[in-house]
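Backbone-to-sequence.
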């Protein structure tokens, strides 16, 4: 008896049980930023009134985000990264409104805003200044969904890794460095370039000027040194500081001059005194690489 009843119930489902209501993508294509995309409310009847929610709030309709006349589909043209969220439809068809199963929309996008970050220092610019022999760790980062993979190209050689380390030894190690961020879903990539430059100098500092100085007569001095990146020059004349590679001065005795390389990445070092060929003129320079 019990068995027969059970079979009867299975064969004749209750007619008033509604179909489950849910949000589903209209097509099988993955949601890509900058492409059209549509969601539909599945399981409602034709006469139903439908309300769309995104993250619990009514969907804001605009020129880009539109509803079909019966509200069954919501279309994004194009889809943007900001459209990501939980979408639900609320269906009213006679009885109490029914909130359907939601759909989590994850927009595939990027890579955008790719940057190379120097460990402990921050984003790298057009040039990456490094001290010879110092180990530097670099990270590549871009905004992507899903997560990007990264490829490094240093002086034409390829390396597939997130963190790239280099220890430049000589000026031979300078050269272009690129990171390529790649998103396998959007099939898009973004390249960020920098140039490895070795900090060097100042070396070969020379001061040129008159071979002899006459007290009370104006004389012009020029300082030249080899630096990477370029040197800046500071002169100290009777305790007065002057800038630029050339100074004019009316001298008395003795005269002190100094040149320094100036970069934001150079730690300060002890000045190295250097005697110039013009007697009576002394120069000092700061060499951050010593
Ligand atoms: C469609 O949705 C809008 C708001 O999103 C609502 O004002 C309107 O009544 C809905 N129409 C139907 C037929 O459900
Ligand atoms: C990056 O994208 C360009 C253009 O789509 C393609 O030619 C190139 O091969 C890609 N590079 C990498 C490393 O995937
Ligand atoms: C980076 O360098 C590569 C080759 O050196 C070049 O094709 C690309 O346009 C550069 N990208 C940027 C953003 O400068
Ligand atoms: C130093 O500079 C002078 C003049 O600019 C140049 O002739 C000389 O070769 C340089 N010496 C070195 C070691 O670079």
């Amino acid at each position: 008896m019990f068995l027969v009843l059970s079979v009867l119930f299975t064969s004749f489902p209750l007619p008033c049980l509604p179909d489950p209501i849910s949000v589903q993508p209209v097509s099988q294509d993955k949601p890509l930023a900058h492409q059209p995309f549509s969601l539909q409310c599945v399981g409602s009847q034709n006469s139903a009134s439908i309300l769309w929610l995104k993250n619990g709030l009514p969907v804001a309709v605009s020129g880009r985000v539109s509803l079909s006349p019966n509200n069954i589909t919501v279309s994004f043209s194009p889809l943007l990264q900001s459209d990501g969220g939980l979408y639900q439809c609320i269906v009213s068809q006679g009885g109490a409104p029914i909130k359907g199963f939601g759909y989590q929309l994850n927009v595939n996008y990027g890579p955008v805003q790719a940057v190379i970050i120097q460990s402990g220092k921050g984003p790298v610019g057009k040039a990456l200044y490094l001290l010879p022999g110092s180990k530097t760790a670099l990270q590549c980062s871009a905004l992507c969904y899903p997560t990007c993979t990264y490829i490094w190209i240093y002086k034409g050689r390829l390396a597939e890794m997130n963190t790239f380390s280099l220890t430049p030894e000589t000026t031979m190690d300078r050269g272009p460095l690129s990171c390529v961020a790649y998103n396998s879903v959007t099939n898009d990539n973004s390249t960020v370039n920098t140039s490895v430059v070795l900090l060097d100098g100042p070396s070969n500092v020379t001061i040129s000027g008159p071979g002899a100085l006459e007290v009370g007569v104006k004389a012009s001095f020029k300082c030249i040194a080899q630096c990477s990146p370029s040197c800046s020059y500071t002169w100290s004349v009777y305790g007065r500081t002057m800038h630029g590679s050339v100074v004019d001065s009316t001298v008395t005795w003795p005269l002190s001059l100094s040149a320094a390389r100036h970069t934001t990445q150079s730690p300060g070092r002890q000045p190295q005194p250097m005697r110039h060929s013009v007697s009576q003129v002394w120069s000092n320079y700061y060499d951050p690489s010593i």
